[in-house]
Amino acid sequence: KQSLVGFVGLGNMGNHMARNLLKKGYPLVIFDISKDSVKKLQDDGAKAATTPAEVASQVNRIVTMLPASAHVQEVYTGNNGIFSAVQKGTLLIDSSTIDPSVSQEMAHLAQSKGATFIDAPVSGGVNAARDALLTFMVGGSETAYNQSKDLLSSMGKNVVHCGAVGTGQAAKICNNMLLAISMIGTSEAMNLGIKLGLEPKLLAKILNMSSGRCWSSEVYNPCPGVLDGVPSSNDYKGGFGTALMAKDLGLAQNASTVTKSPTPLGSLAHQIYRIMTNSGYADKDFSSAFKFLQDKK
Ligand code: NAD
């Protein structure tokens, strides 16, 4: 019988990830500020806690899946945060996409409590989360990575050790910068092709058998009706929010400033997603870049 595992942050991604742990036989104690999210997993057999501290006091492994750096700082270091009650020897696995320097700061604080913190951000989107097909990019010691592996492989198909704490975030930030650029590019190409008289499904089919093919065109096409079961065919509901993409692009721009690496397309993609966030698209899936271009005609 597996020992109790903690899970904090049960949103678009976390709810699926936690459910997969339950399915694989890990009993869970969970917390989220959203009562609805907690309720759904309680119905599936998870035990609810009223604070992150109450989670930490009962377990020796915790997964967190929160929106951004500030939420991670709150959940770990706030009043009734994880660090106020963490047990010695606990492994803390943060799968949120945040600033690598915040991951390093959390790792430092964890160490002072006799616990270990690793960053393990994910790629794959909500359907991959549901189907346990995520890719995890792990930053931390080899030992901690090995201790996290059974949990992470219950929620994903690829678990890659990137190096020291923060390097998982580094890999994730680079991936999402490329994803944002490819999503905007796919949206531009689809919109232009349709304006030129091409049927959207046919255009997508041609792109996907040609050199423009990418994840955004093939698996997550932004044009409504091209694919079933993706946010574009559900009024851009669910999925990966535009505000979260703008956040990740901001992290990439911070990183490019710190390392003096030119990222001109990343910078433009950041500004496009920033404008979308301020134009009513914040909570829509990031593939709504297609709709944003259409609306501006
Ligand atoms: P989300 O906003 O849907 O979920 C976040 C959850 O955290 C919510 O349920 C919210 O109530 C909870 N939360 C916020 N503050 C809290 C607090 N103080 N205490 C407890 N719970 C709190 O976000 P998401 O789409 O699930 O993404 C989570 C992370 O994963 C983000 O960093 C995101 O960038 C990353 N990510 C998302 C996707 C995706 O496709 N959605 C893919 C890869 C990575």
Automatic annotation (TrEMBL):
Which GO biological-process labels does this protein carry?
Answer: branched-chain amino acid catabolic process
Major enzyme class = oxidoreductase
User: Which UniProt keyword terms apply here?
Assistant: Branched-chain amino acid catabolism, Mitochondrion, NAD, Oxidoreductase, Transit peptide
Q: What GO cellular component is one of the record's annotations?
A: mitochondrion
In the Enzyme Commission scheme, what number(s) does this protein have? 1.1.1.31
**Positions of the 3-hydroxyisobutyrate dehydrogenase-like NAD-binding domain:** 166-292
Its UniProt entry gives the catalysed reaction(s) as:
3-hydroxy-2-methylpropanoate + NAD(+) = 2-methyl-3-oxopropanoate + NADH + H(+)
Q: Which GO terms describe its molecular function?
A: 3-hydroxyisobutyrate dehydrogenase activity
Q: In which pathway does it act?
A: Amino-acid degradation; L-valine degradation
Give all residue intervals belonging to the 6-phosphogluconate dehydrogenase NADP-binding domain: 5-163
| Cell location | Mitochondrion
Q: Which domain of life is it from?
A: Eukaryota
What family, per the record? Belongs to the HIBADH-related family. 3-hydroxyisobutyrate dehydrogenase subfamily.
Its protein name is 3-hydroxyisobutyrate dehydrogenase
Species name for this entry?
Sinanodonta woodiana
Full-protein residues shown here are: 66 to 362 of 362
